[in-house]
Amino acid sequence: MRIVLVGPPGAGKGTQATRLAEKLRIPHISTGDLFRANISRQTELGKLAKSYMDAGNLVPDEVTIAMAKDRMEQPDAECGFLLDGFPRNVSQAEALDELLKTESIQLDAVLDLEAPEDEVVKRIAGRRICRKDSSHVFHVSYSPPKKEGVCDVCGGGLYQRDDDTEETVRTRLEVYHTQTEPIIDYYKAQGLVVTISALGAVDEVTERALEALEALK
Ligand code: AP5
Ligand code: ZN
C-alpha cells in the first residue's frame, strides 16, 4: 500500500507509523526523522534544516522534496510506503503527484489523525526520543521507558527535542493549520482521505487505523 499520514504535531503520527509500517510490511518514511538523522551526522542538509526546525517552520520545499524523492526511490519502497510528515503543503503534494505519475503508481489512502490541541500539547510536552534513533519515541507518563532516560529498544539516551519548546510548538501548530491542513482538501478532491480519531490508547488507535485501511479494500 502507499499511504500518506497527516495530522497535527504530536498527534501520534510517528508512533502509529512505526506500528502500521510493521503490520503492513512497508517502509516508514518520515521526513522529520530523515532531517534529524542529518542533524546528528552534521551534514550540510542537517545544518540547513536545523535552523528551520528549531523555529517551527517548514524546511524549504526544494531540499525537502529532493530528500523525500531520493528516499522513495530506494528499493525497499518499490512495493509501497507510509509517508509521515510529507507532503506538508500543497506544493509538496503536487510534487508527490508528479513523482507518482512518472512511475505510474497511485496513493491508496491519506490517513488523517485528528486530535484536539490540548491533547497534542500534552503529548509533545512529555515526549522523549532516543539519541541513537529518533523513531524510538516515549512519553514520560503515557508510555514511559522501563528505565528512566534510557531507550527500551536500543539502550540509547533519551532527550527532549529542541523543537518541543512551548513557543516552537505554538508556531508548529500554526504552520500546520495554515500550510498543512489545506492538503486534506487537496486529497479529499481525489477521494483519498480517511479521518480517524487519534484519541485513546496507542493500540486502540492502531486498530482503528488498520480497520479504516482495511475498509478501503
Ligand atoms: P516532524 O518530525 O514530522 O514533527 P511533527 O509533524 O511536528 O510531528 P511530531 O513528530 O511532533 O509528532 P507525531 O505526530 O509524530 O507524534 P509522536 O508519535 O511523536 O517534523 C519536525 C520538523 O521537521 C517540522 O517542524 C519541519 O521543520 C521539518 N519537516 C519535517 N517534514 C517536513 C516537510 N515535509 N517539509 C518541510 N519541513 C519538514 O507522539 C507524540 C507523543 O505522544 C510521544 O511522546 C508519544 O509517546 C505520545 N503518544 C503517541 N500516541 C499516543 C496515544 N495514543 N496516547 C498517549 N500518548 C501518545
Ligand atoms: Zn533507541
TrEMBL record:
It comes from Streptomyces thermocarboxydovorans. It catalyses: AMP + ATP = 2 ADP. ATP binds at G10, A11, G12, K13, G14, T15, R127, V137, F138, G200. Residues 30-59 are annotated as: NMP. Transmembrane segments: none annotated. This is Adenylate kinase. InterPro entries: Adenyl_kin_sub, Adenylat/UMP-CMP_kin, Adenylat_kinase_CS, Adenylate_kinase_lid-dom, P-loop_NTPase. Consists of three domains, a large central CORE domain and two small peripheral domains, NMPbind and LID, which undergo movements during catalysis. The LID domain closes over the site of phosphoryl transfer upon ATP binding. Assembling and dissambling the active center during each catalytic cycle provides an effective means to prevent ATP hydrolysis. Its EC number is 2.7.4.3.
